Amino acid sequence: MTTKYEVTYIIKPDIDDEAKKAVVDKYDKVIADNGATMVESKDWGKRRFAYEINKYREGTYHIMTFTAEDAKAVDEFGRLSRIDNQVLRSMTVKLDK
């Protein structure tokens, strides 16, 4: 059964556009390489945080929506984003019931 997922992640605000694009492309590729089908990948722009995260007061939000047969792509994204120092936070939501 195919499940739809939504992943929101926050990229550090002080990296340049080229580096930000590299981060986005890297995670889009991680999703595709692990058997998921990308529905949408869009930039939400810079937003101010309600509280400080790793000494940052704002970050660049990016959201991906994709479908997958299993959670392999979600697990791999989670693993890589936790060790990537360019990503401040991420959240994955399963959209199907």
From TrEMBL:
UniProt-listed CDD domains: bS6
One of the Pfam families matching this protein, by short name: Ribosomal_S6
Record carries keyword RNA-binding: yes
GO biological process terms, semicolon-separated: translation
Domain of life: Bacteria
Gene3D superfamilies per UniProt: 3.30.70.60
Annotated GO MF terms: small ribosomal subunit rRNA binding; structural constituent of ribosome
Keywords linked to the UniProt accession: Ribonucleoprotein, Ribosomal protein, RNA-binding, rRNA-binding
GO terms under cellular component: cytoplasm; ribonucleoprotein complex; ribosome
InterPro entries: Ribosomal_bS6, Ribosomal_bS6_sf, Ribosomal_S6_plastid/chlpt, Transl_elong_EF1B/ribsomal_bS6
Function: Binds together with bS18 to 16S ribosomal RNA.
Listed PANTHER family: MITOCHONDRIAL 28S RIBOSOMAL PROTEIN S6 (PTHR21011), SMALL RIBOSOMAL SUBUNIT PROTEIN BS6M (PTHR21011:SF1)
Protein family according to the UniProt entry: Belongs to the bacterial ribosomal protein bS6 family.
Protein name: Small ribosomal subunit protein bS6
Gene that this sequence comes from: rpsF
